[in-house]
Predict the structure.
Amino acid sequence: MTTVSTHVLDTERGEPARGVTVELFREAELVGAGETDADGRIARLAEVPAGLYRLVFHPPSPFFRRVELSVELGEGHYHVPLLLSAYACATYRGS
């Protein structure tokens, strides 16, 4: 099985982004969802079989309403953070 975690960092304010809704889809099926905690984290978004997924963030941004990533997940654990400011975002595969 594969586990997925995430966190969202507000790089403009230099602090975690609290209350951000994050969803995980396999094709059209919602397989995991959560809201970031006070540290901007969702420790366990989902436990799913390996495969192709869409990770969708709904940030509180004046510009970005939805940030969507298509990711290929193998066996093991994946941590996928989002770095966000008012008009820029970036992501990477964390550890």
Notes: The first strand starts at residue 2 and ends at 10.
